[in-house]
Amino acid sequence: MTEHFATSPFGGRMMNAAHFLSYEKLRQQKQNLRQNSLLTEDNSEQRIVPVDRWKLLRALTEAREAYQLSPRTIAVLEVLLSFYPDKMLDGSAPLIVFPSNQELSMRLRGMSAPTIRRHLATLVDAGFILRRDSPNGKRFVRRDSNGEIAMAFGFDLAPLTFRADEIETQAEKIRDQNRIRQQLRFSITIHLRDISKTILAALNESREGDWEALYAQLQALSGRVERNGTVSNLSIRERALSILRSQVENLYLSNVSEPKMSGNERENEHHIQNSNIESFDNTNAAKTENPETKTKRQTSAPDIQNKTPHLSEILKTCPQIKHYAMSGIQNWKDLIITAGHIRPMLGITPSAWREACEIMGEINAAVTIATMLERSDKIHSAGGYLRKLTQRAENGQYCVQPVLRALSHTKH
């Protein structure tokens, strides 16, 4: 097949320097290929190494943002490649495909002709294909007496093959960026989890330190970890979280001490079930309370505490909380710890949780969290809701049994 092509477009499309240079570049590349071709031992010409069209398309799909190509433009190129009979593309040979507009539309699942023309123009402007227009602008093929293609008019895929190395290099850069992005996303997620749980443990264990300020820093760095965030932004966030994590862990470890135990473990569990356990320093809290508030808490909290149902009843009515327990819920202590882990997930601040534990007692606060978890889809602001319940409990107007009964009736 002899290549005799016009460089000017058919019809109303104007010729421009970019298009002319694209034709000239392809002509020069083919000429250089012929001049620099090597001879093998049997004196046969060694041609350019063919490329797998589908591997090349995959690489271009990965690197499409570098060339500002939309997914639909890639789809149009895929269909053009599907019209070439061979899997391998050899840039030294003519690579003309000549599908009709109707056939293109069929393979593109009914894409309109104007949309197809727009995406074809994008591919031409990007230098991945060339137009080989016939005298009348139609796409067709002329064959010789032996049935071989003598002349074809349509779209030339050769420029794509000459840019295969460039496309693969761009695709590898994108893959590297994606790997780095994924590693940063993993690191950010782990930092957020570890910082949150360390602060929660410090608050539950009443460790000294400005944990509220550290929690505020965590909140500023929290939020959804973007799947397609830039490497630069993710790196900045990961670095900030890494520094915050070091501060939190160092502060936590600086105050590690053996927990005070009153009697054996069984006595401790019995104490949890029958008293208003506090997870903070009662002495310091008492200094900041006025007598009226203190009297309210002493009268209301024990009354509420005594109305707490059995643990088995709570777990039967609120089964979801068991899924968040690290080692199951065997006693009240496990329930309290699990509720503390759930608290950040519901958007409840440490101060709201601490106040609920102080006024309701840790057990009733934990039961309240369990009931809120069951109805999380119906609660707009869990933090505000818990504060309202805490205020009602302080006035002696809230206990958990009616809530549990209502949940039980709903499920049955």
From TrEMBL:
Residues 259-305 are annotated as: Disordered. Signal peptide: none annotated. Residues 273-287 have a biased composition (Polar residues). Residues 39-201 form the Plasmid replication protein C N-terminal domain. Residues 263-272 have a biased composition (Basic and acidic residues). Residues 311-408 form the Plasmid replication protein C C-terminal domain. Pfam families: RP-C, RP-C_C. This is Plasmid replication protein RepC. It comes from Pseudochrobactrum kiredjianiae.
